Amino acid sequence: MAGPFRLRLYVEPESQKRRVELAAPIFEADFQNGLARAAANTCLEILGEKETLTGLEALATKIEDALSRYLGSILAPAQGNIACAEGCDHCCHQIVGATLPEVLVIYGKIRELPAEQRRERISRVQQSRARAEGLSPAQRYSEEHPCPLLQEGRCSVYSFRPLSCRGVHSLNAEACSSTLRDPARRRRFQEQGEGIPCYREPGLTVHAMSAGLQLGVSEVYGLDMSPVDLTLALAWLLSNPSAVSEWLSGHPLPARLRAGHHSADPKRAHVTGERSPK
Ligand code: SF4
Predict the structure, then answer these.
(1) Which numbered atom of ligand 1 lies nearest the CA of 89?
(2) For each of the chain's 278 residues, which pLDDT tens digit applies?
(3) Ligand 1 atom 5: the closest Cα is on which residue?
(4) How many domains, the chain?
(5) Is residue 150 in contact with ligand 1, taking CB distance under 6 Å?
(6) Residue to substitute in 165, 231, 234 for testing ligand 1 pocket (most ligand atoms within 8 angstroms of CB)
(7) Residue 89 Cα to chain centre, angstroms
(8) Cβ 275 vs Cβ 215: under 8 Å
(9) Could you tell me if the CB of 95 is within 6 A of ligand 1?
(10) Is residue 203 part of a domain?
């Protein structure tokens, strides 16, 4: 480990296992710091001594599943109030930020599709990339820019969707729809964060788990875990056969793939997961 960074690596005396703790709190809320530490330790448990493609896919899947279970438990008492439902895709028309292991899970699923479906999916991703490249987050939040993984209003990779897609829990589907389609409401939402009532805890939980994933992989294994734009990163993987091996060997991700930091949580902006020097 090249640290010291945001994590401190130590060996547990009894088990002799490598563990990490936060060198200092990242978030104001204790529960977020606990989740970030747990996610970072999951990186060590799943990847062990050496990061591999299979290990990184298993890691992303494990943290995604853990997030969904956790959210399921904290939101159980509020289920009746949640407006999100199958076939509701208003929140799938914007930049989706994800770490590369999350994108690799979806990339692997696309590669497993039967040939015709695979060709169709790849073509859709590349068309979306061509329309999206160079646009700002504000321009991408539009009916014109659906996620290329949407199929007839449904997520075609629902079980494997990124962490950020799992954190959206609206209390008013009509507000989601009108904010996406009405330019004045959209502007107010983008500039002031107003217009769509949502549960706050799921978003905070996503930030915490994603931070742990980013820090665990970047600081312990030296890979660039800067959040990327799902559409651009998928297109990059699908058109560049050496992309995965280059990233695994420590190359930084192309800057044009970066999703930026659009979080409302100011502390979150400091957790970049950028590759640490080996
Ligand atoms: S990955 Fe799925 S849930 Fe996420 S934006 Fe795309 S279609 Fe929507």
Answers:
(1) 8
(2) 444 489 999 999 999 999 999 999 999 999 999 999 999 999 999 999 999 999 999 999 999 999 999 999 999 998 889 999 988 999 999 999 999 999 999 999 999 999 999 999 999 999 999 999 889 999 999 999 999 999 999 999 999 999 999 998 999 999 999 999 999 999 999 888 888 999 999 999 999 999 999 999 999 999 999 999 999 999 999 999 999 999 999 999 999 999 854 443 333 444 555 654 43
(3) 92
(4) 1
(5) yes
(6) 165
(7) 17
(8) no
(9) no
(10) yes
Residues 6+ apart with CB under 8 A from 146: 89, 92, 93, 128
92 lines ligand 1 (CB under 6 A): yes
Q: Indicate the SS3 state at residue 151.
A: strand
1 in a structural domain: no
Ligand 1 lined by 96 (C-beta under 6 Å):
yes
Cα–ligand 1 centroid distance for 244 (angstroms): 22
Ligand 1 pocket test target in 157, 206, 229 with most atoms within 8 Å of CB: 157
Asked, as a colleague might, if the bond just before 4 is cis with ω within 30 of 0, I would say yes
What's the domain range around 146? 7-270
What are the angstrom distances between the C-alpha of 79 and each of 75, 92, 169?
Answer: 6, 21, 10
Phi-psi region of 153 (alpha: psi -120 to 50; beta: other; left: phi over 0): left
pTM of the model: 0.91
Q: Which helix (H) or strand (E) holds 35?
A: helix 30-47
Taking the centre of ligand 1 as the mean of its atom positions, its distance from the CA of residue 194, in whole angstroms, is 22
Please report whether residue 278 resides in a domain: no
